[in-house]
TrEMBL record:
Sequence segments annotated as region (Disordered): 212-242
PANTHER family xref list: BLL0505 PROTEIN, PROTEIN-METHIONINE-SULFOXIDE REDUCTASE
InterPro entries reported for this sequence: Mopterin_OxRdtase_euk, OxRdtase_Mopterin-bd_dom, OxRdtase_Mopterin-bd_sf
The keyword Phosphoprotein is assigned to this record: no
Alphabetically ordered keywords of this record: Membrane, Transmembrane, Transmembrane helix
Record protein name field: DMSO/TMAO reductase YedYZ molybdopterin-dependent catalytic subunit
Residues annotated as transmembrane: 48-70, 110-131, 152-174, 180-201
Organism: Salinispora arenicola
Entries under Gene3D superfamilies matching the protein: Oxidoreductase, molybdopterin-binding domain
Superkingdom, natural source: Bacteria
Signal peptide (residue range): none
Length: 447
């Protein structure tokens, strides 16, 4: 039977659960939770500190989410070539990815990876600041609280999952037994949903905590004078705080400095020139060699199983348009009007570079085989297997004046690793779709 209190309320109303079971649960806290909770004694914890980290994440995470979704769109989901292929009702509006500005994908992808890495210390600091809540017992007092804690599980689990899979992917470490793109995409939606709920719930408290400011008068007297924030309803402030070892400002500076340091060690991979050597945290970061072909290689010719014979004098480019088929050899391509453009290669793993490419315009090749009004172009590589041995291009990507079947780079022949005898280069196209060792181009009018 529900107990009745002096104020007329019942336990049922207080708990929102069948009471005897709940009482028993509350009485029998798992061994150690109380001690663990009291063990978190830093005087730094409190609503203000949590709100500072929360505010930084609130201002920056939407950019990481947005650039991530844009990257997904850039892959051309309308051609079923984005990953994951089937996203059910999580389908984004299908738009043609533009070719201008040519650095668009370089920026969206670079921001996604660099900012994502920089936010790692902030996320960890935010989690550290709320860690006593993990040991609250009973874990929830009402159905609403159960739901809130479930959403926190998705929020925390979601972001840690996105960080882990993202970091492993840019290190080319496919340790997990599932597809990275699928996992990272669905994880992003889980996390984003939980984030929206969390912000809706906590925004007012964040704003008021920031307004209230940190406890006054700590800084002039140094870290040992660090004062706890006043006790809060959320239980972030330690009931028996230990003496301070670092000032509140020092803690925030440390986390911010960590973020900037990570950014500094990452951003080089999206820059050309000697600064690339500063990308110490990334495998494609440091030393791509010298000369006209001295820029990062994603997959070498050897790794792709491309032999010297495949790309020798017998190589032909096959152009198709409906029933028509034309083959051209390399001297034939070199005899056509050559066009040059300075265009980036931006890889989904976060590195990018800009080079000076020369070759035949894709629209001239369309004209050669009489494709006046193609809707798509389907490109296939000599490479027999692998995820990236073909791509479908949109009409605007075929007809951009700088879209090339590149034969040369920086005034020299393409190297075998960069796609000799011919490769695709299209403004703002993700690197993964700049197919190397091209064998056939098929123009289609039916999409
Ligand atoms: N045939 C083929 N083309 C390919 C790839 C591949 O694996 N096979 N990798 C792509 C990827 S992921 C990138 S980022 C670019 C890198 O081009 P680069 O190695 O010349 O720098 O090539 C693309 N073209
Ligand atoms: Mo790539």
């Amino acid at each position: 039977m529900p107990g009745r209190h002096d104020d007329g309320s019942t336990d049922e109303r207080e708990y929102g659960f069948p009471v005897p079971m709940w009482r028993a649960l509350a009485r029998h806290s798992p061994p150690g939770t109380g001690a663990a909770r009291r063990g978190w004694r830093s005087p730094l914890r409190g609503p203000w500190l949590t709100s500072v980290y929360g505010g930084i994440l609130l201002a920056t995470l939407p950019l990481v989410i947005l650039t991530g979704l844009l990257d997904y769109l850039a892959y051309g989901p309308q051609f079923n070539q984005a990953f994951p292929r089937d996203v059910g009702w999580l389908r984004l509006p299908q738009v043609d990815w533009p070719t201008r500005p040519s650095w668009l994908f370089r920026v969206t992808q670079g921001l996604h990876v660099t900012l994502g890495i920089m936010l790692v210390p902030v996320v960890l600091a935010k989690l550290w600041s709320v860690i006593p809540k993990l040991f609250v017992w009973p874990p929830a007092r009402s159905v609403a609280q159960v739901l809130e804690r479930l959403s926190l599980l998705l929020l925390v689990g979601g972001i840690l999952f996105e960080i882990a899979t993202g970091l492993l992917n840019i290190q080319y470490a496919y340790l997990f037994g599932f597809d990275f793109y699928t996992a990272h995409y669905f994880g992003a939606w889980v996390f984003t949903g939980a984030l929206v709920a969390h912000v809706a719930l906590k925004l007012p408290r964040m704003v008021s905590a920031l307004r209230a400011g940190p406890p006054a008068d700590e800084t002039p007297s140094g870290p040992t004078a660090t004062r706890p924030e006043p006790p809060d309803p959320d239980g972030l402030v330690a009931p028996q705080p230990a003496a301070g070892t670092v000032s509140r400002r020092g803690a925030v500076t440390l986390v911010g400095g960590g973020a900037l340091l990570l950014g500094a060690l990452t951003v080089g991979q999206t820059l050309d020139g000697p600064l690339r050597r500063t990308a110490l945290l990334l495998p494609r970061g440091q030393d791509p060699g010298d000369g006209p072909n001295g820029f990062p290689v994603n997959r070498t010719a050897a790794a792709a199983g491309i032999s010297a014979e495949d790309t020798g004098p017998d190589w032909r480019l096959t152009l198709r348009n409906g029933g028509r088929e034309i083959t051209v050899d390399r001297p034939g391509l070199l005899a056509m009007t050559q066009h040059s453009a300075r265009l980036p290669i931006a890889c989904v793993e976060g590195w990018s570079t800009q080079q000076y490419w020369t070759g035949v315009r894709l629209r001239d090749l369309a004209g050669l085989v009489g494709a006046v009004d193609p809707v798509t172009a389907q490109i296939r590589s000599l490479e027999r297997s692998g995820l990236f041995n073909q791509v479908t291009l949109q009409a605007n990507q075929v007809f951009d004046a700088d879209s090339l079947l590149a034969l040369r780079v920086n005034g020299a022949e393409l190297s075998a690793d960069h796609g000799y005898p011919a490769r695709i280069i299209v403004p703002a196209l993700p690197g993964v779709h700049c197919t190397k060792w091209v064998a056939t181009i098929e123009f289609r009018t039916d999409g």
